[in-house]
Amino acid sequence: KRCHNPDQRPQSANHRTMTVIRAIPTIQASCRTASGTHVARAIRGSGRVPSIIHGTRPDDKELITIDHSEIARLRRKPWFWNTVYDVEVEGKGIFRVIPRCHQRHYLYYQKTVNVTFMKFQPFKRHLIQVPVILENEDTCIGIKRGGLLSFNQDYLKCWWDGDENIPQQISIDIRNMDIGQAVHSRNITLPDGLVPHLSHHQYSFASVTGGQSAESIEAVKAATSKQ
């Protein structure tokens, strides 16, 4: 849903990003030599997920399989897409990667059918998704006045050209948002090295609609007092 006045935004809202130095998690994987539909179906039937690690060249790739429960556990974390992993491939060594693509089953949404990784190179440009978290919903002015909160986008797709310490999330404090106000990407200051994927596009993360804003209530009171 769109706000009543797109140009109006909460002036005192606090928008910040979190950069946390995290230990690089390890994913255990096995090497595979064959590919194709029948091979992939057999791998999934054994409880594993066919995956691939791409490098900088078209011929630079590693065919691997990962335990499905391991992928399911990692996918439940909101920062899956902006975390660097060490994939330990049996007999091949350790590859430092970042997730690029994740395919689910078309009927069983919780089942992963394929995962693609890219080899991570520090200070080279990588496309990531950073989670957007709304804070203080229970004290939001607009919601208390009967407004409806619309959370329009829970991730921001960005280019990152830093090291492994990718910002964990973008936290937006909405306690001062009133009805008819919205938070756009232009209101958020991103850390160095993080650039929106579509820098010319204005993303709307959250808005409060419905009910009556403080300005509307004051206007009604003023009109009533003149009668």
From TrEMBL:
- What is the organism field in this record? Spongospora subterranea
Q: Which residues form the Large ribosomal subunit protein bL25 beta domain?
A: 128-209
Entries under Pfam families matching the protein:
Ribosomal_L25p, Ribosomal_TL5_C
Q: What is the lineage of its organism?
A: Eukaryota, Sar, Rhizaria, Endomyxa, Phytomyxea
Q: Which GO terms describe its molecular function?
A: 5S rRNA binding; structural constituent of ribosome
- Tell me where in this chain the Large ribosomal subunit protein bL25 L25 domain is found: 27-107
Q: Could you name the domain of life of the organism this protein comes from?
A: Eukaryota
Give the CC-aspect GO terms.
cytosolic large ribosomal subunit
List the protein's name: Uncharacterized protein
Q: Which UniProt keywords apply?
A: Ribonucleoprotein, Ribosomal protein, RNA-binding, rRNA-binding
Q: Which GO terms describe its biological process?
A: translation
